[in-house]
Amino acid sequence: AYTGKTYGAILNYYRVFQSGSADTLTADVATYEAIPRANAELLTFENVSKHAQVFGSLNTSNVYNSTENYEKTDRLATRARAFDSLKSEGGLNWLKWHVLFWYNSQPSQLVNHTWANEAEIFEYMNGYIDRVLDRYSDFKFIDVANEGINSSGTYRSIVFSSKSSDPIAWIEHAFKRAATARSSSNVLLGYNEYSWTSGLPTYPKIPNTISMLQTLLDRGTPIDYVGLQGHLYAIYWSSYQRDLLEQYTQQLESMGLQWGFSEFDVTLCDANGNYYNANTGQYDSGGTKAMAEARKMEIYQWCAQLVGNSSKALHFQTWGFYDGESWKNSFNHPNSDPLPWDDSYNPVTVNGVTIPDAIRDAIGGGVVLDGFTPTAGDTLYPIASYKWRDGVGGTIVTQGTGAPGQHTVNLTG
Known about the structure:
Elements: E1 6-11, H1 13-16, H2 29-39, E2 42-45, H3 51-54, E3 55-57, E4 67-68, H4 71-80, E5 88-89, E6 92-102, H5 108-112, H6 118-135, E7 139-146, H7 169-181, E8 188-193, H8 205-218, E9 225-228, E10 231-233, H9 239-254, E11 258-267, E12 276-277, E13 282-283, H10 289-309, E14 313-318, H11 328-331, E15 349-350, E16 353-354, H12 355-363, E17 369-370, E18 378-382, E19 393-400, E20 405-411
Parallel strand pairs: 1-2, 1-14, 2-6, 6-7, 7-8, 8-9, 9-11, 10-11, 11-14
Antiparallel strand pairs: 3-4, 5-6, 12-13, 15-16, 17-20, 18-19, 19-20
Helix pairs in contact: 6-7, 10-12
């Protein structure tokens, strides 16, 4: 059984299905799905589970009984549940709903509606939360709120706070309602945010985010984990960024919160396609893809190791898994290539090591051994494999204070 932290990937609905209203699969679905089917213990849907995407209609006479359209999310969830690698425990599949409430996915009908008061808004939220958590009661993770703090450090303007004197009352209410609606306390409720490598004095977003989370916890808000998005850049990687990540994750842990990277990627170039230059530390004409990919490997390894070293870290999840579907390749430049697999589905390799293997090694992949007892002090890790599966024989290499050696075993659990 896999005993380390979890690697997670994002599934793009339109890379699996040809349309939103039919079960017809894309021509290359088998190629697309092969990587997450073999490697990802955690799966999240890229866009189709966001509020505006599932919203149906507002029932203005009884807002609790408004409607949604779950056709796409149902279809993708059914397929994802069958993935070989998906972790499951206690009836829960390691699927993540992303996201219940986000300022950038507000249904226009809600924004344009004249709300009577905060109570009416919260009643709408109740119905929506109840329906999602009932329908997807087997999901392990629910991202309840996303990006509640502006880049400037102020609170976001969102329809759910429009009738409240307290700008975070809607977040508190959403978590508390979700806690009553979840199938068990084993379903974890999370808050998701970006820019964890920026800090004071010029950038108060994350310090203010942590302050907000502490206020919510002091009010008894049942927040289980925090997602660190982790959209990083090859040029912005120094002891400053590393120290901030260590500082912020330690603060979250001291507050009793679990955490994980939720949307990780590393952009190789600027908007003009200039790669990272190891000689200047900048994106410029002297940069090469080889330099940029070496930097990308460095960042992936360090951040995955941060997850591996923490008893409170849950997972290391990338936003997508191969470069052909990365939002950065369209948002920034086609050379951005920020993900562990390239646009031909091959693992990115630096000096003979693939980024997927580097992630797995860093986050602590391990196995329960059947018929072999390691010497005290040995370190065990799989070789020539990125994902071990139950019942599959393999070779274990041991290192440490005991005698090194290779042992062929059957994996159990």
